[in-house]
Each structure stands twice: as C-alpha cells, then as structure tokens.
C-alpha cells in the first residue's frame, strides 16, 4: 500500500469522522502527496512533479484502459489523460478534490470520449462529454465545501478496507470493466437482486445511500 | 429543493461512466440543482479513484513520458483552458432554443411532445420532451420498459406525489399514473425511454410516452 493510505489511517485513528472540524481536513489535504504534486504542476509547470505523478498514475491508468476492453488503445488513453492533466492542472483545486479522484474523472471522461469517437456517426452530438460528466472542482456553481470532499475521500478508503470481498468484486466490475449490474450478475452467475443488494450494502457503508440524510 | 433523487446504484453507474449520454443528461440536469446528490457523486468518484488504485498496475512503454512532453511542448500556451468561459445552460446548448419556443407537437388534449432522439446519434434510447399545459391532465397510462424522467419546468403530481422542477423519477411498466400539471407554469419534462420504441400501430400513440 502506498503512503496516502497510511497517512489517512493515522488521521482516522486520531479523530473519528463525525467530530472532524475544518482544520484537520485541511491539514490532511496538504499531506496528500499527489495533490501537492498536482498543485505544483498547475502553479509552476513543475515537470519533476509531473513526472512523479506519471510514475504513480500511468500504470494504474493503463490497467484501467485494459480492464475496459481498450487494450489496443490503452497507451493512447494514458497519454491523452496525461496531456489533459498538464493542460488543466491550473484549474485543479486540492480543496475540492484529491488528485486521485480528479485524475480518475479525467480518465473516465477520456474513455467515454474515445469510445464516442470510435462509434462516431456522421451526425455530431451537440453536447460534449464534459457537459455530462464534470471534473470535480471545475464546476463553479455552488462549490461543495472542501471539508466534505476530503472527508469523503478518506472515508471511502477507510470503509472499503472493511468491506467483504464479494462486495468489492461487484464494485470493481462496475468501475473497472464498465459492466452494468445486469452484466455483473450474468458473469458471476448470481441473481441481479444479489448484485444490487451487495452494492447497496457497500454504498450504505460509504454513506452514499440516503438513509442518514435529511432530504 | 428537489425531493425525488436518482437511486444510489444509478449514481454509481453514472460515476463509473457507464450510463448512456441521454441517461447521463438526466442525472447531470438533476445534479446541477441538487447539492445533496452532487456530494453523493463526489463520494462515488472517490470510490472510483480508490478502486483504480487497488487494482493491478501495468507498466507503460519507456518512451511514453518523453512522448507526452513532446506533445505538451507542441501546444501553444494560447490553447490552455481558462475558467472564464461564458456559460450557457446545458439545455440551451442541447436544444439551441428556449425550452418554451420549441416546435412542440400537440398530441391529445393538454399534452405536447418533441422527440429529440436525433440529438443523440448512435444511441438505442428514445429521448423526448413532454409538455403538459398548466393545470392540464394527461390520460391514465402505463410505461413501456423503463422511463427515466427529469422535470425541467413547472411540476406535476400523480398518486405518488408532487414532482417539482429538477426532480428525478424512474417509471416502469408496473407504474400506471395519471399526471396533472400543478402550479401556474406548463410542466415540461425530459424523458429517456430505455426500450426502443417501434413505430408500429398508431404512430401518435407510440410516439407519445404520456399516452401509451
């Protein structure tokens, strides 16, 4: 496991999530080494920082592309994502998203874009991928507090380590292999209801499910 | 404040990038006005990042970093993105018109529709805008396949409750309802129909999701 995880675990032990105030969340943000590097790329066009990010994220991204059935375009996707990281690093705000989350959303959008280009019909679609799937921190309307985003990042890592393998397997297939819940059910040869309940259990741990929210 | 939200599993498929463009559009329109769901999506995006981090790694070609540097050096600074892009709304960008000035096609009674499927080439779903005049009633009907709807203007009510602007609702063939436009504005919705609709039988009947 890498540094980020260790730091996060240390902080979680010190202070339970529910009693966190703004200060430790900010401190944590500063400690996330990848977010720090990304800020340097944005501010100073720091190529050394950029290279460190490349070393860390490129092999993840390549696997992501390959797991998605884009084996023959995997390197192309990694390249495009990194060119995009360089160009938009100036828009990156560590208070709004951790670097890993920001990079994940760029990779996701790049994949959608590449698939769109591959199946392009003669007609153009009037809306672009980024109109439909935004990169966190780049939408200015009602920005979410940094506190929330940083907490969610840490909470996800923490909660995920406690989830049973069968729940993680299902989530991995949705995120890494772009499988619908139905496709996951077919592949694992289990009922769709079971897939959905596994995902729901996992998401309630991650507090994505509404139960605890006042809406 | 919206009260009807997309379900967590749908948001997860959105965050993973697995939804079709029309479905993503419904989610996006809702997210723009719902901070609650935005924060759920933030968490899900983080989940995606953590999943990616925990998967195997595959080494990339040795020359790739240099190739990338060559690429970024060949792009003039002028093309760098800036934040100050004047924003037109997503709907306006899609429709090219104010929503009330569209070439609506009057169907039965209080209902008008506009099929905008052609805005999404290469998609399997049918995408339609529907308008119910203020105070108007749509006849009782069920749905074919799954219909995902987001309210763009005004509000409608049925036996399940009141659906206000930016509310999100999924109806299946199990749901029979009889929507009424409430409030003083025409109620306009965007709907995505998952089952491809075959234009057999009466054209109008099939085309109009409010009345099937």
TrEMBL record, chain B:
Where does the ChrR-like cupin domain start and stop, copy by copy?
A: 99-190
Pfam families tied to this protein:
Cupin_7
Which InterPro entries has this protein been placed in? Anti-sigma_ChrR, ChrR-like_cupin_dom
Q: Which domain of life is it from?
A: Bacteria
- Protein name from the UniProt record: ChrR family anti-sigma-E factor
Which organism does this sequence originate in?
Answer: Marinobacter salexigens
